[in-house]
Amino acid sequence: MNRDVAIDVRQLTLMYGSNLIQSDLNFQVRRGDVFVIMGGSGCGKSTLLKHMVGLYQPAAGEILFDGHSYFTASSAQQSAMRQRWGVTYQGGALFSDKTLAENVAMPLEEYTTLNRRDIADMVRYKLALVGLAGFEHFYPAQISGGMCKRAGLARAIALDPDILFFDEPSAGLDPLSARRLDDLILQLGHSTGATVVIVTHELASIFAIGSNGVFLDATTKTQLATGSPQHMLDHCEHARVKEFLTRGE
After folding, report:
1. Measured in whole angstroms, how far is the alpha carbon of residue 183 from the centre of its chain?
2. Rounded to whole angstroms, what are the CA distances from 171 to 6, 10, 162, 197?
3. CB 209 within 8 A of CB 185
4. CA 184, CA 85: separation in Å to the nearest integer?
5. pTM for this entry
6. Residues 6 or more apart from 202 whose CB is under 8 A from it?
7. β-bridge pairing 195-199 and 163-167
8. Mean pLDDT for each consecutive 10-residue tract of the chain (249 residues)?
């Protein structure tokens, strides 16, 4: 087992019923990467992410975490693996009837033995890390979309995960807010040592934060390139990859 590899995807096939989404996916996410899953609309980026976090089982192939398959693991082993992951979905996926503090506290209450005071201290710390100090008692409807995404990130890092998964984190944000969120993701990755896997079609984000990645193609239903975004741009001969990374310029 290569200890530098956090996630190893081998011969992966993704299907919805009889509908083939992607096949023959092979790539590795190195420890400390900001790994970008990229490609045009409908290519299966979010579907791949959902398989990687265990929501869907692959039709074929395997996804290994530190050399171990999530889907062949026992329920107890799967639970232990999930506790090492932080996941944020589009929009933040916060519970609207709970305050930001209550949202962030949920994984701490479920998976730790911390007392209420220690949980409250940890929640304040995590919200401060994402720039939301003082907003503990606000509800999602009382803050902006960008702030909701940051609160979702605070919840994702509550358990100090080894791997952070993001699904279109900057979708719907203005360019300045999107850039601030990119900077925050990079900062948290560097400060915590977490590996980051991110789905995005935002070109600015791809080049700003991506150190490695895979390009999925909706037409051939497989990957066309792997490597850093700049490496793909400079060396990949597939026209669709070039067009995506330059937006036809």
Report:
1. 15
2. 26, 29, 24, 16
3. yes
4. 18
5. 0.90
6. 170, 171, 178
7. parallel
8. 86 94 97 95 94 95 93 92 87 85 95 95 95 95 91 92 91 84 88 91 90 96 96 92 82
Residues 148 and 139 sit within 8 Å (Cβ to Cβ): no
- Contact status, residue 66 vs residue 228, Cβ threshold 8 Å: no
As assigned by CATH, the class of the 33-54+83-246 domain is alpha beta
CB contact set of 142 (below 8 Å; sequence gap of 6+): none
Q: If DSSP codes are grouped into helix, strand and coil, which group holds residue 89? A: coil
CB atoms within 10 A of CB 115: 9
Nearest to 101 by CA among 128, 77, 78: 128
CA contacts within 13 A on the Cβ side of 160: 6
Q: What is the pLDDT of residues 161-199, one digit of tens each?
A: 999 999 988 888 888 888 888 998 888 888 888 999 999
Tell me the residue type at 140: P
The residues spanned by each domain of the chain are 33-54+83-246
Residue 9 in 3-state DSSP?
strand
First to last CA, the chain: 42
Q: Mark out the alpha helices in 83-223 (DSSP H runs).
A: 100-111, 116-129, 145-156, 175-192, 203-209
User: Phi then psi for 68, rounded to 5 degrees?
Assistant: -115, 135
Beta bridge partners of 164: 86, 196
Q: What is the CA radius of gyration of the chain?
A: 18
